[in-house]
Amino acid sequence: MQTYKTLGEIYDFLDFISPFQNQESWDNSGLLIGNHKTKIKDIFLSLEADFKVVEKIPNNSLLITHHPLIFSPINSLDFSTYPSNIIEVLINKNISLIAMHTNFDLSHLNEYFTKEILGFRDYQKQDFICKVNKKTNFNNLAEYIKERYAKLGLDTTLKLVRAKDKINNIAVICGAGISCIESSMFGEFECVITGDLKYHDAMKFSSLNISIIDVGHYESECHFGQILAPYLKKINYNAIILDSQNPFNYF
C-alpha cells in the first residue's frame, strides 16, 4: 500500500531539484495554493493552470505548473475576473498549486529545449542562456528549426529578424528571454533564438546586426511536464501530464 507524501515533502523535493530561491526577483514561483500538511495522492503537471486543465483534475490533487497563476499581488478575489476565477475552482476542488517558473528555466528547461528539442549538442550554459557553437547561415538555421518543430508536432510559424546571414554562435533562451541578453554579450553571437519578441527589441537587435528567430513562447516551454515527470517517479508518483492550450491561433 502506497504511503502518500505531504505537500510539504513534495515541495521540499521540488526545491531540491530546482531551488525556488534561484527564481528571478520579479517571479512568483513556489507554493501558491495549499497547506504543507495536506496528504497528496495524485499529481498533475501542466504549463498553465487554465480552465480546461483544472476542470480535468480530481478533487484533493496537486497541480504543478510552469507559469505562476498568481503573478502580481492580488488585492481582492473577484471571481468574475482572472486569475480569481480559476483560483475559485482550485479552492472549491481543494487542489493545491505549485509553480516552478524561472527557477526551472535555470535548472532544466532552457538546457532541455536546446539539447532535446532543437538538437544542439555543442553548447555552454551561462545562467539562463545556452550558448551554441554552430557554423551555418540564417536561412538554413530557420529551416532546420521548422523541420525539428514539424517532427514534434509543434507550430512551425517562426517570426524572424534577419540582420546577419553568416552565423557562428547562437544564444538560446526559452520563453520571453530577450531581456536576458545584456549589452556586454552583444559581440558573443550573431543570432538569438527565443520567444515573445517585441517590436522595439527587434529594432534594437537589428540595429546591432544580431538576428533573432522567435520560436514561440508556448512552443519553447510546453515540454515542462515531460521534463519533471521522471523526477516525481523517483518518489513514487506517476504524475499525469495535462496539455494546456496555446492561447494563440494563427490565421
Key traits:
Udp-n-acetylmuramoylalanyl-d-glutamate--2,6- Diaminopimelate Ligase, Chain: A, domain 1; 20% strand; elongated; 32% helix; 5-stranded mixed beta sheet; 251 residues; alpha/beta; 8 helices
Describe this structure in words.
The protein is of the alpha/beta class and 251 residues long. The protein has two domains: 7-103 and 222-241, Udp-n-acetylmuramoylalanyl-d-glutamate--2,6- Diaminopimelate Ligase, Chain: A, domain 1, CATH 3.40.1390.30; 105-220, NIF3 (NGG1p interacting factor 3)-like (Udp-n-acetylmuramoylalanyl-d-glutamate--2,6- Diaminopimelate Ligase, Chain: A, domain 1), CATH 3.40.1390. It has eight helices and eleven strands. The strands form two sheets. The protein has a six-stranded mixed beta sheet with strand order 5-6-8-9-10-7. A five-stranded mixed beta sheet has the order 1-4-3-2-11. The termini are far apart.
